[in-house]
Design brief:
single chain; alpha+beta; 2 domains; 3-stranded antiparallel sheet; two-stranded antiparallel sheet; 7 helices; globular
């Protein structure tokens, strides 16, 4: 049996497990999976199927190598390394924060774990009444303007801390196109470019996992 077939079996097995999201995006009001929510379950599935996943890091690249312990065939997923400058943390702690983020995204990609995307924060809610914002912002519900401003502040703070992954996580909490447009207007061109580049990296990683 190839490593790809075993990995597919592992993904299907994980889908049958009940997982709880412990991460919370307080600004956009949605939950997401933290590493500890799913990795122990994945490790158990891998052990049963004869798979082993090993994460490694270089200065430029984070790598997840999944190996079939029966025939030594493997599949490799990679992600460009980022950086962090968390307030009150020394260099080793910042390195640890980056590696934790990278591990999470590599495993999420490898196991095709579905995050909040465009649904978790909005499913089941009635479409709100919309109106023109006084600033000329596209149609956005008035009471949501303060939420959008909070998200913008959070994105800016993450970027100031060199935490592009965290900034993207905050920004992706807004799923309504008009709200995202309003958020975009509150961000400078450098931040918008960084978020676009990060989104492209995630799509590339997802493409590797499906190869």
């Amino acid at each position: 049996m190839s490593v790809y077939k075993k990995l597919m079996q592992a993904r299907i097995a994980l889908q049958g497990k009940k997982l709880n999201k412990s991460g919370m995006n307080k600004f956009a009001g949605y939950q997401y999976f933290e590493l500890g929510d799913f990795l122990p379950v994945v490790q158990g599935i891998f052990n049963d199927l004869g798979l082993c996943g090993v994460v490694s890091f270089t200065a430029d690249m984070a790598t997840l190598t999944i190996t079939d312990t029966d025939d030594a065939s493997s599949v490799v997923l990679t992600s460009p390394m980022g950086s962090a400058a968390l307030k009150g943390c020394h260099e080793v702690q910042n390195i640890g924060a980056v590696e934790t983020y990278q591990r999470r995204y590599l495993w999420v990609s490898a196991m095709e774990i579905v995050e909040h995307d465009a649904l978790d924060a909005t499913t089941g809610a009635d479409k709100p009444k919309m109106q023109h914002a006084p600033t000329g912002t596209p149609l956005v519900e008035q009471r949501r303007l303060s939420v959008i401003a909070d998200v913008a502040d959070a994105v800016k703070q993450h970027m100031a801390d060199n935490d592009t992954a965290g900034a993207y996580e905050e920004a992706s909490g807004l799923t309504d196109e008009e709200e995202r447009t309003a958020l975009w207007k509150l961000l400078d061109s450098k931040t918008r470019s960084a978020l676009k580049a990060y989104a492209a990296e995630l799509r590339e990683i997802a493409g590797f996992s499906r190869a």
